[in-house]
Design brief:
Strand order of the largest sheet: 1-2-8-7-3-6-5-4
Distance between the termini: 9 Å
Number of helices: 4
Length: 174
Amino acid sequence: MISAMTEPADPSSIQIPLDDLSATEALAARLAALVVAGDIIGLAGDLGAGKTAFARAFIGARLGVTEVPSPTFTLVQIYENASAGEISDVPIWHFDLYRLAGGEEIFELGIEDAFDLAICLIEWPEKMAGYGPEAWLELRLNPGGQGENSRRATLTPHGARAAQLMQQLVAPDV
């Protein structure tokens, strides 16, 4: 079960303490099991916050892919089912928008197709500058204060599907 508490600044947001890298990886794996084609996860946070580590764990849990390079220079990496028996054959598009000069540049990456047909992980979603999707789940990683690898994940839903996904993520296991 994921322990969550409501963030006072935004009543629709929740915070999840992540004591170490394995807790971050567990959160990524749980989310990976819940998403479907068309779901968009924005990974926000400062440099070194753990966005790429989260994406690696998510992609690994979802597709069994073991090598997940950061798309900092390629801007996008596309992953498809690596082996039979994994969760699904829905591709994952992993974007890193850090180097974009303007939000309109996202369209040069084929992002609209990804929004419809794939699961999207978008590092630096704020770089979309108003050109992004209406429905997406924002996952902001901040230092957790309990050690070098501790983090605090703040989840903020944008749209009904994102709110549903967030509630499934923090629901107790049945």
